Amino acid sequence: MINFDNNATTPVDESVLQELIRATREFSGNTSSGHSLGNAAGKYLRDLRERVAKVLNAADADEIVFTSGGTESDNAAVRGIGWAMQAKGRNGLVTSAVEHRAVLNPCEWLGKHGFNVTVLPVDADGVVDMAAAQDAIGPGTALVSVMIANNEIGTIQPIQQLAKLAHDAGAMLHSDAVQAIGKMPVDVRALGVDSISLSAHKFYGPKGVGVLYLKKGTPYDCFMLGGTHEGGRRAGTVPLPQIAALTVALELAEKKRREKGQWLQGLRDQLVRELLAKVPGTHVNGDLAKTTINTASIRFDGVYGGHLLREMDKQGILASAGSACMWEVTKPSHVLTALGLSDEEGSGTIRFSLGFANTADEVTRVADKLAKLVPELRGQPATL
Ligand SMILES: Cc1ncc(COP(=O)(O)O)c(C=O)c1O
To answer: How close is the Cα of 199 to the center of ligand 1, in Å?
Structure first.
């Protein structure tokens, strides 16, 4: 099996799995319990929080809130910060047309509950229109939510400039960093963000655990109600083993990025070069100079991507049409449409997202197989 679908999820690293097992065995207490078993778990949780804060360059370990993943962190930020800012008389939400559904859907929901939502357009490379951002962000804006890096085409957004625009207007800035970890530096202070979302399964950690970084002083109305866990910012018994695994995975992803990031980018570039050379009628969506190091969105003229993915799967090659959660949808994604691609162009698009376990030999094998498959599938009707 050749896995070029690492933006959907990544295989759990062996050392991460070992930590998951070790922490499950050694820390069976509830981190909130006052007895010795609970205290041991609580102490380890504090260590883990500090380690996560260090990787992200957060000013304070208490700015790290553990959640169930990217979707929860995005919901918590958009709704939690949105509500708290609404209480201060602001009801404007500004987001972008290429956000993940985990941001767009809560924004749409708030739009039905008293907020004015502006969706910023992007250019043909998927970069947010900064003139539109300048127009949209003003004294009524509660929150600007724009992702650091896109999951489908990999485009990196000008977060520092957006944070400045937001702060100059007295608004907050949330950024979905789910696809950024292990692919680019994520330094919360350098970026100037008020909150970011992470998800462990996108960086060789387990599914179902993530982080909401929440800068000290950021207005926040707790979204997940119940106990007083996580400093009253996220109720629910803390899943210590998963958090331990997330922490090891985060440290490892950052180490791998520093040591092997250029190599991964080279592998992605090799794939694009070989596909363009070996498969006629092939194009890159967006600009590779503006993307994360592992992602390439490739368009094959006259081919329905759904057919191609299924044939590739039969031959042991995994990739994706858009985001994994939209696999069953036959229409091109909202991201590809936002770039200005036609339905036909969007339908012929495949997302290749490489990981640290891939090899140069796999790249050549995929390009050779597609050189045969694509001409065979050209012109077949777009039905599943
Ligand atoms: C950019 C982005 N945000 C959020 C999510 C959701 O994360 P999770 O799977 O942890 O809920 C994903 C996952 O595909 C993503 O790519």
So the answer is: 7
pTM: 0.96
| 73 in a structural domain | yes
Mutate to test the pocket of ligand 1, among 73, 98, 100, 150 (most ligand atoms within 8 A of CB): 100
Are 100 and 114 contacting, i.e. CB atoms less than 8 angstroms apart? no
Any domain includes 284:
yes
pLDDT digits (tens, 9 = 90+) for 298-307: 999 999 999 9
The candidate with the shortest Cα–Cα distance to 293, out of 3, 6, 97, 55, is 6
- Minimum-distance ligand 1 atom for the alpha carbon of 210: 10
Same domain (yes/no): 312, 267: yes
Q: Which residues lie closer than 8 Å to 39 by C-beta, 6 or more apart? A: 29, 33
Q: Is 76 in the pocket of ligand 1 (CB under 6 A)?
A: no
Cα(69) to ligand 1 centroid in Å equals 8
Question: Looking at 228, 252, 276, which one is the last position of a domain?
Answer: 252
Residue 368 belongs to domain spanning: 2-7+258-377
Average pLDDT estimate for 140-144: 98
Is 146 near ligand 1, meaning CB less than 6 Å away?
A: no
**Cα–Cα distance for residue pair 167/149, rounded to 1 Å:** 21
Q: Are 167 and 160 in contact (CB under 8 A)?
A: no
Same domain, 78 and 154: yes
Catalytic residues: 325
In this structure, the answer to whether residues 38 and 187 fall within a common structural domain is: yes
In short, whether 100's Cβ falls inside 6 Å of ligand 1 is: yes
What pLDDT, in 10s, does the model give residues 305-315? 999 999 999 99
Rounded-to-integer distance, Cα 133 and Cα 95, Å? 9
Which of 229, 252, 275 is the endpoint of a domain?
252
Domain membership of residue 382 (yes or no) is no
Residue 383: inside a domain: no
Averaged over 37-49, what is the pLDDT? 97
The structural domain count of the chain equals: 2
> How is residue 233 annotated by DSSP?
T
